[in-house]
Design brief:
The protein has 14 helices and 25 strands. A hairpin with a 2-residue loop joins strand 22 and strand 23.
Length: about 450
């Protein structure tokens, strides 16, 4: 029976595979049963400190077991986690702490030269909602193991979380103004993760090095929750580096390779790659944009017979909503982002909102599967969800077979001499040159043509 909450999903997986390895963190393995007991103990501890259903817990941590245990504890007790990047500094954190009325923050005492103790102690005096500062230190895991065994019922949490309760808040990067708080529910996250889990045929035998950050849907839904549903194993990568990932892969050969194109490009260039056993690899998932021709050619040359898929998703879709079909043609893989996953609908909308015919470019709208209903912070945007559709802000078209072709962000398109230009298309051409590692384009003013493209290129070493 499909679970309706993440707590139910965890319980089902623990019942099915209690002794199977769920996570590998810093070389140490944890079974599903161990993870469940520690998450239960952490939920009990949070409840004892005064945190209740609906309260918001900010997490400022790299990928690691404390991040996951806090997410699962919140799922059990009905609390809400707020993903805060370790790259954020005072200005971003000030805004989000206040915007979300965060009640507790889990953080390291110091990281990358930033003194979280001093900053958060001062923030607690400035923000009335912020009451609890929780620190991850050497004794964190030991404290949980000594208190493991206290059940949710014994802790007296009361009514458990409901499917439409908030579970996680993710701040969108936002191209203008302040970032918006996307409110992901148990239902929306599971909607996306269940669809992806089915599509990629995830299984208990899968293992992935998870480098996508957990404060992003690419990490939490496409990675962690999808693998939780399958009972597979995630090896947690605190901060991405190609050397770290390949060293992990040498010890624990993966069945999936997952990342944005930049990550995969850097992995394929690294001298450790030929020494790494990737014979178990069955699937490579590229998120964020289409596979570039040069990258695809290199992947296919190195890993013949391994399936390659594009993945498209947004914070507002809770995770993946479009993926490449199995046995897609080379052209479909190169040119399109795929088709909507089961339970999702897509419309290519014209300026009046009407569906456009195949081949015509319009804004991509989505509904169903993991699509959220609204933003939950002070920055609202009712137009983004008008008419029951998520207006993605991405431009694209669809062909007769239902494949979606992404043309880039609506705000990125520029008009040159009366013609619409989509930088992503030109980027694809420039990226095909052997000397180019990465490229990004924008439109800039021109006295004759109105706008012309300017492209920034990172050369291949």
């Amino acid at each position: 029976t499909p679970p309706e909450t993440v707590a139910q999903a965890l319980a089902q997986t623990v019942a099915a595979y209690p002794d199977k390895t769920a996570y590998i963190d810093q070389g140490r393995s944890y079974s599903w049963q161990q993870v469940d007991a520690m998450a239960e103990a952490w939920a009990h501890s949070l409840f004892a400190q005064g945190l209740r259903r609906g309260d918001r817990i900010g997490i400022i941590l790299p990928n690691g077991l404390p991040w996951i245990l806090t997410y699962l504890a919140a799922a059990k007790m009905g609390a809400v986690v707020v993903g805060l990047s370790v790259r954020y500094r005072s200005s971003e954190l000030d805004f989000m702490l206040q915007d979300c009325a965060i009640k507790a923050v889990l953080a390291p005492r110091e990281m990358a030269g930033f003194d979280y103790v001093t900053y958060l102690e001062q923030a607690r005096k400035r923000f009335e909602s912020l009451q609890h500062l929780l620190w991850v230190d050497a004794g964190f895991e030991q404290r949980l193991q000594t208190t493991a065994g206290v059940s949710v019922e014994a802790a007296g949490y009361g009514v458990g979380p409901q499917p439409d309760d908030l579970l996680m808040i993710i701040y969108t990067s936002g191209t203008t103004g302040r970032p918006k708080a996307a409110g992901l529910t148990h239902r929306s996250q599971l909607g996306s993760a269940l669809a992806q889990c089915s599509h990629v045929r995830a299984s208990v035998d899968d293992l992935v090095q998870l480098a996508m950050p957990l404060n992003h849907v690419g990490g939490i839904t496409c990675g962690l929750l999808t693998m939780l549903l399958a009972g597979g194993t995630c090896e947690l990568v605190p901060m991405f580096s190609p050397e770290a990932v390949l060293q992990m892969a040498q010890r624990h050969p993966p069945t999936w390779l997952v990342g944005v194109p930049t990550m995969l490009t850097l992995l394929l260039m690294h001298p450790l790659l030929p020494e790494t056993d990737l014979s178990q690899l069955r699937l490579i998932v590229v998120g964020g944009s289409n596979v570039e021709p040069a990258l695809l050619s290199r992947i296919q040359q190195l890993f013949p017979g391994v399936a390659i898929m594009n993945l498209y998703g947004l914070s507002e879709t809770s995770g993946a909503i479009v993926m490449t079909p199995w046995q897609a043609s080379q052209e479909a893989l190169l040119q399109s982002i795929g088709k909507p996953l089961a339970g999702a609908e897509m419309r290519v909308a014209g300026l009046d909102g009407a569906a456009l015919p195949p081949g015509e470019v319009g804004e991509l709208w989505f509904r169903g599967a993991g699509v959220i209903g609204r933003y939950v912070g002070q920055q609202q945007d009712a137009d983004a969800f008008a008419g029951g559709w998520l207006h993605s802000g991405d431009l694209g078209c669809v062909d007769e077979q239902g494949l979606i072709y992404l043309k880039g962000r609506q705000k990125d398109m520029f008009i040159q001499g009366g013609f619409n230009v989509y930088p992503s298309e030109v980027e694809g051409v420039i990226a095909s040159y052997p000397g180019v590692m990465m490229v990004a384009g924008i439109g800039v003013a021109d006295p004759v043509l109105g706008e012309v493209g300017r492209y920034y290129v990172v050369g291949r070493p």
